[in-house]
Amino acid sequence: MSLPPLVEPADELTVDEVRRYSRHLIIPDVGMAGQKRLKNAKVLCVGAGGLGSPALMYLAAAGVGTLGIIDFDVVDESNLQRQIIHGQSDVGRLKAESAAASVREINPLVEVVIHNTALTTENVMEIFSGYDLIVDGTDNFATRYMVNDAAVLLGKPYVWGSIYRFDGQASVFWAEHGPCYRCLYPEPPPPGMVPSCAEGGVLGVLCASIGSIQVNEAIKLLTGIGDPLVGRLMIYDALEMKYRDVKVRKDPECVLCGKNPTVTELLDDYEAFCGAISDEAAEAASGSTITALELKGMMDRGENIFVVDVREPNEYEIVSIPGATLIPKGEFLNGSALEKLPQDKKIVLHCKSGARSAEALAVVKSAGFSDAVHVGGGVLSWVKTVDPSLPSY
Ligand SMILES: [Zn+2]
């Protein structure tokens, strides 16, 4: 598939620009027209971290005329292993400011726009509307779904990437020409099921591998050359040193970009949608999360377990897992739940989606119930995978 260029060419290149970009200009597919398009392009990079670092540096060097940087974080020493746009002297500095300084040093002809703020449902539409293309370098699911939804609602393409340990993925999501992120991942993973780089680590150089794919695709979209990564997912395994791409089809039932969309504006709360949980809860859930089907198996085998539903009584009334004892999360947080737990049974916690039970799990584990687990996806997952006859809510 080839697509028309995203950006009209600028009127002209200055003598300085011709000198600077000469290695682009002599590539027939780029040439003067392509470089003028890059000059006219406005690209926003969401996040100046692992993926944003190489992306911003190469977008700047390539001569993208306007580069937006959005990040609210400050540079930490633990960032420097991979976030190469920042240096030792930037530790403690705002990432957006530090990244902007590096961009200006790489290419003073680039106009840098600093958005020193968190991306929120209040500002995402307005910020995105000022750009032709978004490069998504976010590291959490809440922001990822928000970026996707805003881009689809605005009809803008975005280049997505993700990294973990030795594995990377990248794709271009553009609902007008192919699938969106929700077509590939209709639902966020249950909390605790997918560890972040902060929990699981990431090989620093992996950022360059995936970030460079993102820039490569951005340049192709802006200038209208090559076969863009629309409808394809690139999967990179750094240990095997293998790239493979798999087809991603547009889902006609996609709630956002399908035939009968039910999501027609931004969600109120992406954190809640993704069941965002505290660091303590994420740590407790890591390696101690079971699926609803696994719980069913434990029950069927008659294992010595004590299943606790940490939701509220009204939720328990709507639907509950057979045999579960109701002890709302608040009782774990104030400590009163602990005396209700048997010492001689394995504790299995669950809630609606897995967020609250992860919080309760952190309390239970630190109280000494070291083999306690919680159910990823909670009662919703139970309804979906074990007993679809039960009501969902
Ligand atoms: Zn979609």
Automatic annotation (TrEMBL):
The UniProt record lists the keyword Nucleotidyltransferase: yes
GO terms assigned for molecular function: nucleotidyltransferase activity
Rhodanese domain location: 301-391
Top-level taxon of the source organism: Bacteria
InterPro entries, A to Z: Rhodanese-like_dom (IPR001763), Rhodanese-like_dom_sf (IPR036873), ThiF/MoeB/HesA (IPR045886), ThiF_NAD_FAD-bd (IPR000594), Ubiquitin-activating_enz (IPR035985)
Listed name of the protein: Adenylyltransferase/sulfurtransferase MoeZ
SMART domains: RHOD (SM00450)
Keywords from the named record: Nucleotidyltransferase, Transferase
Taxonomic lineage from the root: Bacteria, Bacillati, Actinomycetota, Actinomycetes, Streptosporangiales
Pfam families: Rhodanese, ThiF
